[in-house]
Amino acid sequence: MNSIDSITLEVADTEAAARFYSDAFGLDASRVRVRASEDPTTGFRGFTLSLVVSQPGNVDALLAAAKDAGATVIKPAEKSLWGYGGVVRAPDGTIWQLATSKKKDTAPVSREFDEIVLLLGVEDVKASKQFYVGKGLGVGKSFGGKYVEFATGPDTVKLSLYKRRALAKVAGVDAEGSGSHRLVLNGETEPFEDPDGFAWQPAR
What we know:
It comes from Streptomyces parvulus. This protein has helices at residues 14-25, 56-68, 125-134, 164-171, and strands spanning 6-11, 32-36, 41-43, 47-52, 72-79, 84-89, 95-100, 115-122, 138-143, 147-151, 158-163, 177-179, 183-187, 192-193, 199-202.
């Protein structure tokens, strides 16, 4: 196993969720899947998904489309030290960050994005890093016990690890939460669960 081929979001209404992700972000089941689940979950689910784009105008276009499709804006898009971005919560409860490292537009605005990043909020970044290295993932970037980014190939979902409370702060939500993550990671692997309860299944 060396990458996430796709992710599956567990939702109450699969038709509504699929429609939202198509209308808001132009996503299809090749990268983001949905399946029905009634597993209880409350508060922060311990992860966020990010769409990384090439310029601020694309962030604004995606945020507007998400809002029009029914998302709740948690953080309006704004400039920061690292670039420009905002945060929305999809109708199914998933938190999405829309971000770019650029501060100026250099091309016509579109809703195109460069990559999808899954950030897992974990209790012990170093321990989780070693767990995933043991599963065959290569490390792309690592900043001690604060942040890890794994190396992934094209057309896959990039995996990163962050401290749970720090990730919740970035997302603009309270870090408390319990129950199901409502998330499954799909790759070339046997089924397993990581130390923080995130489930992996074979990609189909």
